[in-house]
Task: structure prediction
Amino acid sequence: MALDAWLPIGFKLPDGARVHLALFGGTGWQVYETQGSGRALVVDGVLANRWLASGMIDEGTMDSFKFGERQLRAISSAPSQMLCPVSEAKSPDNKAEALAFALALKVTRDIDSESALQDAIYIEKITRLLPTYSISARTGDDVVLGCWLTGGASIPATSFRRLRQMSRIDADHLKDVVQAAGFNVAEIMPLERKQASVEEKATEVALAGEKAGEVKRNAPEPSQVFELAGRPELAAFFNEHIVDIILHRERYKALGIDFPSAVILHGPPGCGKTFAVERLVDFLGWPSFEIDASSVASPYIHETSRKVAQVFEKAMENAPSVLIIDEMEAFLADRGIGAGSSHHRVEEVAEFLRRIPEAVKNEVLIIAMTNRIDMIDPAIQRRGRFDHVIKVDFASEVEVQSLLDKLLSSLPTESDVNSKPLAKALTGRPLSDVAFVVREGARLAARSGKDRLDQASLLSALHTTPARGREGGETKPSIGFI
Result:
């Protein structure tokens, strides 16, 4: 849809630049292309005054002028200087362009530590990301930087391996950029996979000391542990059985433990299994591959097994990597269940039985998820294939309140917002319901013309969000996460 421009083509701004086309716009601001291929940001007085009051800009940074009844301010930039919304990210071509954005992000955060920046306007000329104060949930600064460096992919800058795969910038330069923005670059594993050729084995022996030092330098500091706010049990499990083994490879290897064992996460729908795995993948920064019904299931004989084998092969080729098996009951149900088509299921289960130990030996971390652990073939669940079977159950009141506080902290809220009564009402329900109530409350607040989320909107969202039916069973939480 065409943007309704405030200014006519040819309008002369106070600094002499003449506007051409309106390119982008939002509440209280518009970005124009100027004659000569430069750009100009034009904002209303309300938004400009907010930037002045917060110290984001100084008096005189933007020129003041009137157009009709509007009191406006403007700043122009040359064609060589970037001026655009952060959401319009295009992967930078070189280190200089990337470094300019990283420095602007850091300078902005030094001035304003709270405002969301995913909807900000980047002005290279003044080294700033000017927030537009939208009501949308705040995206982490590491994701904002990662989006900019990759041209739109939601990859945290701290997931350096994934970032490197998506960015056009050299790895060493990319590391400098991420660090300039104030983030640590600490990979869990070295970037390059160790090959098993005779020549490389000889090189490995000759450079053993150097390799050991390299692994140590690339590993996170001991204080950099995997965290899942509000649900420490699952975080502790991941840290002990996965992260620590990866961080201290040589120590574990000396005692015969080469790589973390495969894990099954099971529990009711909506309790956060998928989110937990996504956060772990981000933390590790490894390539991830997925097996699910939509990607590999086939009605043709042998076809499903062939596709499963291909995914395992890709994961091993790109190791260290993570292989996620979602809704594993679709592939790994008990072979004793079923009639006419059970011989196909036997073949599929046999393929998994063969591939899982092989993949673990080749540095593939396997995590499977299911809502129906009772359906899974016993041969799959035995130790040696999946050593750990972890239940992710409904959250306690304390855990629900922790999630609410986390979600609300990323939104502009009124002083009357209180998560405690909401947490009490939502206890025993899936965590997806908790996130929905916050999102629905924000929608109701925005629909009412409010620029901050208030308690009344949250309570209204809660009352219009009934719990959906689920199968019976104990709802007391065992282990889970946020």
Observations:
- The chain has 19 helices and 13 strands.
- The chain has a mean pLDDT of 82.
- The chain has four domains: 19-77, 87-180, 225-385, 397-463.
